[in-house]
Design brief:
- Pfam families: GFO_IDH_MocA, GFO_IDH_MocA_C3.
- Helix 5 (about 80-90) runs parallel beside helix 6 (about 105-115), helix 6 runs antiparallel to helix 11 and helix 9 (about 180-195) crosses helix 11.
- It contains eleven helices and 14 strands.
- The protein has helices at about 15, 20-25, 40-50, 60, 80-90, 105-115, 130-140, 175, 180-195, 290-300, 310-320, and strands at about 5-10, 30-35, 55, 70, 90-95, 120, 145-155, 200-210, 220-225, 230-235, 245-255, 255-260, 265-270, 275-280.
- The strands form two sheets. The chain has an eight-stranded mixed beta sheet, covered by helices on one side. Strands 3-2-1-4-5-6 form a six-stranded parallel beta sheet, with helices on both faces.
């Protein structure tokens, strides 16, 4: 292939700005078809974004001869089904995070990619954003020395502003999302931890439902011990007051601390009581750096920026924190 011709399955809120336009902006990439079950909405999306073809049937998009790669942006419940169908059709797949509902499902997707010899990437796109790459370079340069431990807090009120709004509040329906808001937000954070600190020795956690008007766990606590000796402590709670909301990841080393949010633009580094800050401009399309690397990978011009095996690690940790509670 000399060019990736994308088809999107599930052109909802996530694809409006975060990802969709980027498929037309990166080199050697075109967006040629979109699919959504609602005919009126998918036609409107295609017209607004200048996409030549639209479908209400995913199989028709998958089997479109002009499409050679599929981006799956549906709720997690449909990820495995559409991924397997695309892989069987010989189409490379880029699938949203969380990769799917649980680790067993993720393994079936990986196995199908290997069986069909088709490429599979997962949208853990923070790996390639400038701010999180800067954190990685600070860690690689040992700016705070050897790492001791990490404390992460994601404390949000019900229906937080940082969650993309949708017609149907599927993110808090475990039958569709795999869990609650933890399953929507934690994949970003846990993936970055494994990206920064490497292989996992063991993980443990617990999840509970504290609110009475929800079907999903709204508090999750978890610990990870990495083979490197780094210890991670994470707390996610989605029932605090707006005044108490927090989004912070603090990495402690022998010389100081690196602190940053997952949904912000500033890194703070403190060494011997001296503070230095790094600020970053917002990205117009947050997935564009990842999509560019995925395109290069699909074209055989680069490595996989986030493989199914990488994402499986995150799925296993999430299962340990929630399913095996």
């Amino acid at each position: 292939m000399e060019q990736i011709n994308w088809g999107i399955i599930g052109c909802g809120d996530v694809t409006e700005v975060k990802s969709g336009p980027a498929f037309k902006k990166v080199p050697n990439s075109r967006l040629v078809a979109v699919m959504r079950r609602d005919a009126q909405k998918v036609e409107d999306y295609a017209l607004r974004h200048g996409v030549p073809k639209w479908y209400t049937d995913a199989d028709k998009l998958i089997n479109d001869a002009d499409v050679n790669a599929i981006y799956i942006a549906t709720p997690p419940l449909q990820h495995e089904m559409y991924c397997l169908a695309a892989l069987e059709a010989g189409k490379a797949v880029y699938v949203e995070k969380p990769m799917t509902m649980d680790a067993n499902s993720a393994q079936r997707m990986i196995d199908a990619a290997e069986k069909n010899d088709v490429k599979l990437s997962v949208a853990h796109y923070r790996r390639l954003q400038p701010m999180f790459l800067k954190v990685k370079s600070l860690l690689d340069d040992k700016i705070i020395g050897d790492i001791r431990f990490v404390n992460l807090k994601m404390l949000q009120p019900p229906n937080p502003d940082l969650i993309a709004k949708s017609d149907e509040n599927w993110r808090t329906n475990p039958a569709i999302s795999g869990g609650g808001l933890f399953h929507d937000l934690a994949p970003h954070q846990i993936d970055l931890m494994t990206y920064y600190f490497g292989s996992v020795k063991k993980a443990q956690g617990m999840a509970i439902k504290q609110q009475h008007n929800t079907t999903a766990d709204d508090l999750v606590a978890g610990n990870i011990l990495f083979d490197s000796g780094v210890v991670f402590n994470g707390l996610w709670c989605f029932s605090v007051s707006k005044a108490e909301q927090a989004d912070v990841c603090e990495i402690y080393g022998e010389k100081g601390k690196i602190s940053f949010p997952m949904f912000g633009r500033k890194i703070s580094v403190t060494i011997d009581g001296i503070l230095k800050e790094y600020e970053f401009e917002p990205l117009e399309h947050v997935q564009q750096p990842m999509i560019e690397q995925v395109v290069n990978y699909f074209l055989g011009k680069g490595t996989n920026p986030c493989s199914g095996e990488d994402a499986l690690i995150t799925m296993k940790i999430m299962d340990t924190f929630t399913i095996n509670k």
